[in-house]
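Incident log, structure service

09:12 report received: a user says their structure output differs between two submissions of the same chain.
09:20 pulled the input from the user's history:
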Amino acid sequence: MSALELRDYQLDVVRGVESEIAAGRRRLCLVAPTGSGKTVIAAALIAKARDRGERILFIAHRRELIEQASRKLHDAGIDHGLIQAGFPARSGERVQVASIQTLHARAVRTRKIDVPAANLVIIDECHHVRASSYMKLVDAYPNAVVLGLTATPCRTDGRGLGNVFEALVECPSVAQLTPKYLVPAKIYAPAWPDLKGVRVERGDYVETQLAERMNTAKLVGDIVSHWHRLGQGRQTVVFAVNVSHSVHVRDEFRRSGVLAEHIDGTTPLEERKRILTGLATGKVDIVCNCAVLTEGWDRPEASCLVLARPTKSLGLYRQMVGRVLRPAVGKTDALILDHSGAVFMHGFPDDEIVWALHEDRRAENTSHSARGQHSHAPALTTCPECCAVRFEGKPCPACGWRLVKKPKSVEVADGELGEVSRHCHVKANVYSAEEKQRFYRQLLWIVRERRRKPGWAAHLYKKKFGTWPNAPSWAPPEPELPDAAVRAWVRSQDIAYAKAMAKRGTAR
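09:34 re-ran on a clean worker, output below:
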C-alpha cells in the first residue's frame, strides 16, 4: 500500500466501502466522476483484501481499462495475473485482472478454465452490468463481495441498477472536485439540432436515423468553422454518431488544414495507439470517433470536446463530457463545443445528479429540471444578438445584451455558437484602442499576403468591432505579422462566407 498515494477524499471513499461491507452489504456500486480516481480507489481496496489473504477478481470490458488497472496495481506493488487473449495465464496469483469477453468465453461459454476463486469481485464501468455476460459472472459468485465502479450508475434510459446492487457509495461530485482535482468547463452551444421524427429505442435515438439527420454538409461545416473560431490550438476529441459521420467530420477538418484523425471499433490496436499518442504529444490536433473513447480513455492533455452526437441518455452525456475534465500542466479549463443540444437537455457537466438505485427510478439532474419552472431557476435560452446561450431574463454573458421594452430587430448569425455560462454578470468584451490597432495591422498583413485591397481589411474590422478603422490616427498603419488567433478568426469568416455563397447558389 505504501506505493499507492491516496487523496483525502479517496481515503474517505475506501472507508465508506469498508463500512458498507462490515454492515453486511455484499453488492455495492461505487459512484465517482470521471477523473476522480476510481481505479486508484479500487487498487487500495484490492491491496487491503490481498493483505487479509483474500482472492480478488477485477473485470473490465475494454483493453484500455485492463491496461489502466494493471498499471495502477503495478504502481501499488500488487502482483497479478491477466486473463486476456494474448497473455499467459498466472492462475496462482491472488489478484486476477480479466477481460469480460475472455473470461466469459473461457470459463462460462466453453468451460476451458474454472471460474477464478474470488472473495472480492470488482466490475469496472459497471453501468454495463445488466449484460448477460456480466450477470452470469455475478451469479457465479453468490458469496463474494461484488463492487461496481462507474461515473454513471444507470442504464442508457437512466434507470437504476438496484436489481444488481444493494447500495451506492458516492465520491464527491464534479462540482466538489473542481477546480482542485478537475478543471472547469466552458460551454458553447448552438440551437438544438432538428431531431423531430428521429425514433427513440432503449432510451436513446436510433443511430441510423440520427446519423442521417446529423451527417449533412451544413452541420459538419458548422463544426469545423466554430472550432476554428473557438477551439484552435487545443487538443480536441470529437464524438460523432457513427463511422461515416466521424470520417466526414475528419475529412472536413483536413480540408481546412487541420491534422485530424478518425478511430472506430475496427481500427487496429497499434494504429489507435499511434493516433492517440499523436494527440497527446501535439502531432495530431483532432481525433474523431464514435463510441470508442466514451470510457476508459485517459488523456488529460485533451482540452476541447466537440459533441456532434445528440443523446437522450444522461449517462452517455456525462461520460462524454468527462473525457476533458482531467487536469494537466498548463490546462486551465475544458472547452465544450456542443453541436448536439445536449447541454439544453441534460444541463451543465458539474450539476449535481441524484442517482437512483431502484431499477424503476431514473437518475435526475434536479437543478436542470427546475430551470424554467421557477423564477429562481431561469431556463437556458439563446441571445438574439450574438446567439450565446444565456439564462432567460438575464443579460447575455457574452455580449451584454438585455431585453428592453422596444427591442430592435437583429440579424442572428446562422448556427453561431455562444458560451454557456452560469455567471450572467459577465460583461461584453471591451477592446482597447491599442488592441484594435494591432488587430487592424494584422489584417493588413493578410491583405498583402492575399493581394487584396485594403477595403477588405476595413470591412472585416467593422464586422469585428462594429465601427470602421480610424487608420489616420494610427501613424503609420504598418502591417503586422498575424498571430494564431487573428488567422483563426479570419479563417472562420472565410468559411462562413463560403457557406453563405453556397446557400445563395442553392436558393437560386
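09:41 both user submissions now match this output. Likely a transient worker issue. Closing.
09:42 reviewer note: Residues 61 and 415 are 38 Å apart (CA to CA). The longest helix spans residues 484-507.
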